[in-house]
Specification:
By secondary structure, this protein is α/β, with parallel strands linked by helices. The chain contains 13 helices and eleven strands. It has a domain at 5-178 and 251-266: TIM Barrel (Alpha-Beta Barrel). The protein is globular. This is LLM class F420-dependent oxidoreductase. InterPro entries: Bact_Lucif_Oxidored, Lucif-like_OxRdatse_MSMEG_4141, Luciferase-like_dom, Luciferase-like_sf.
């Protein structure tokens, strides 16, 4: 039992759980996107995902991601079974280990993830109905072996190309991309810097940035223009669409856009005109 990759669509929408409302879910479906990703560490009860599923008819709803340190695996599995009974085949459980700055007492992430997956196995959550947030090679290998694939957050196309090589052909690779429809460079970069500020202090993200094309100078002082322009993409809808397609060209099978606006719908409408 699996979520077929074509059912996710080529493009999806990523929104924090507080913003992933039933209303947004209906708009995502209306506009032709295939998946709504519920981010911001949704809890094991999966309430936001359930509400989005209840409000829609066909889209997949995925978590991006449930944090394995704060969401009990058995509770998450029970919620998965509840959602599967109500909406067969439409939910994808995305899980991840977060970042060390928020989980100082955590065990080795790879071991903890493997143990979490063991519980999901025992509780009847199929490998084809879960996806891992994986940045490094060992977690990507685990994602390939024990899930549908990987949902990386805040990664450039160069990482996508490398991740595809590690995952191998046929596995889901669904990166998230921040986008902002704004052609005023100063204004757009200010919004991008605000969105990226916390991530430039988190080692798992900065290590990835340093490995895939950026320098310490790019990361310092709120981020260089070059870093902002690539990781919090701004410009016309056509430019945003081209940025999403760069990940497809690099090997992604699905790309989800996170709109840096309090009301994402106008941007999603304009972007849909370029994508579909």
């Amino acid at each position: 039992m699996t979520v077929e990759q074509h059912e996710l669509g080529t493009f999806g929408v990523w929104a924090r759980r507080t913003d992933a409302t039933p209303e947004l879910a209906r708009e995502v479906e209306r506009l032709g996107y295939g998946t709504l990703w519920v981010g911001g560490s949704p809890g094991a009860e999966l309430a936001e995902a359930e509400a989005a599923l209840d409000a829609t008819e066909r889209i997949v709803v995925a978590t991006g991601i449930v944090n394995i340190w704060t969401a009990d695996a058995r509770a998450a599995a029970a919620s998965f079974r509840r959602l599967e009974a109500r909406h067969p085949g439409r939910f994808l459980l995305g899980i991840g280990s977060g970042h060390p700055e928020s989980n100082a007492d955590r065990r080795t992430p790879l071991t903890a993830m493997s143990d979490y997956l063991d519980v999901l196995d025992a509780e009847g959550v199929p490998a084809g109905r879960r996806v891992l947030s994986a940045l490094g090679p060992k977690m990507l290998e685990l994602a390939a072996a024990r899930s549908l694939g990987s949902h990386p957050y805040l990664t450039p196309p160069a990482h996508t190309a490398w991740a595809r090589e590690v995952l191998g052909a046929g596995k889901l690779l669904a990166p998230e991309v921040m986008v902002l429809a704004d052609d005023d460079a100063e204004h757009a970069r200010a919004i991008g810097r605000k969105a990226l500020d916390r991530y430039l202090k988190l080692s798992n993200y900065t290590k990835t940035m340093l490995r895939w094309g950026f320098t310490e100078d790019d990361i310092a002082n709120g981020g260089s223009d070059r870093l902002i322009d690539e990781l919090a993409v701004w410009g016309t809808p056509a430019h945003l669409a081209a940025a999403l397609r760069k990940h497809l060209d690099a090997g992604a099978s699905h790309v989800c856009a996170q709109v840096l606006r309090s009301d994402p719908v106008p941007t999603l409408e304009a972007l849909a005109d370029e994508l579909f």
